Amino acid sequence: MTETEIPEDHPRYASLVTRHRIEAGVEKGITSKQGLIAQGRGEAFDYLLGERTLPSADAAERAAAATLLCADHPVLSVNGNVAALAPAEIVDLAAAVDADIEVNLFNHTDERVRRIADHLREHGADEVKGLAGDGEIPGLDHARGTVDADGIEAADVVVVPLEDGDRAEALDAMGKTEIVVDLNPGSRSPRTADIPIIDNLIRAVPNVTAHARDLADAPASRRDAIDSFDADEALAEAEAAIREGSFGMPDDAAADGDASNADIAD
Ligand code: ATP
Ligand code: MG
Fold it and tell me: Which position among 70, 93, 183, 197 has the lowest Cβ density within 10 Å, counted as fewest Cβ atoms?
């Protein structure tokens, strides 16, 4: 089945599209087989969160947009799952906040970096970093720690969607302001982040872009978005949503549905 053959009225449409993109990413050589496993874990958490953007995630997305707009040198880090799931959305976000895009892989091969860079260019990217490999994240072995000297190494703010915990911690130790997108609020990466976004990458990236457009000419609102966001509270809210949750009901069903879910969505 191709993506366009998935019936749009299917109750799990978004989830099926996501699976399809990851599968196509593996076939195209841009997503690793490990990426399939990461996708499965993400899907399970998204199901428990009710496949919607929580109010606390929306606040995180707004704070992320404000932080990116205030940055001197923001970089969006792209791995094989991100490239398969939201290539055009990453390109849009980079344009909205004037960020670099850098391919950075946990299971690094030059071939896969090149394929991902080509894939991003097919979706409108101009410059894609990640092939120079002339910088490093201290404290990690060579394969995991290689970055571009004028990219992630020089960045003040990095967006690391679906990052593994070790690298998130090592980037934090370098003093970067980290924005992590991850559906698991218990994972080390969002717990290390300055701004944890507990949301599906597919919903999160375009929403950060929308907030960035909204905040572009509003410096006072940017400060407010950053100051009013509390990372620990957002993590706690996501955990509570999972515990009390709507167990996989999509947005509208959840809105008509049980009271516990309506409480969360308020
Ligand atoms: P660690 O504690 O080291 O961070 P981990 O379990 O997070 O370990 P991975 O196997 O790299 O390590 O997990 C991938 C993460 O990516 C999972 O937490 C999963 O929830 C998340 N994830 C997968 N797909 C998506 C997606 N589409 N959007 C957001 N997060 C996702
Ligand atoms: Mg993680």
Answer: 70
Q: Which two tokens stand for residue 159?
A: 């967006």
Helices 201-215, 55-70: crossing angle, 10 deg rounding: 50
Kindly state whether residues 12 and 101 are assigned to the same domain.
no
Q: Tell me the CA–centroid distance for residue 109 and ligand 1, in Å.
A: 21
Measuring from atom 12 of ligand 1, which residue has the nearest CA?
164
Cα 235 to ligand 2 centroid, rounded to whole Å? 13
* Amino acid 254: pLDDT: 46
pTM of structure: 0.91
Pairing of strands 135-136, 177-181: unpaired
Q: What pLDDT shows up at residue 44?
A: 95
Give the three-state DSSP class for 166: helix
Residues 6+ apart with CB under 8 A from 153: 135, 136, 137, 147
* Mean pLDDT, the chain, whole residue set: 91
222 and 103 fall within a common domain: yes
Nearest CA to ligand 1 atom 3: 165
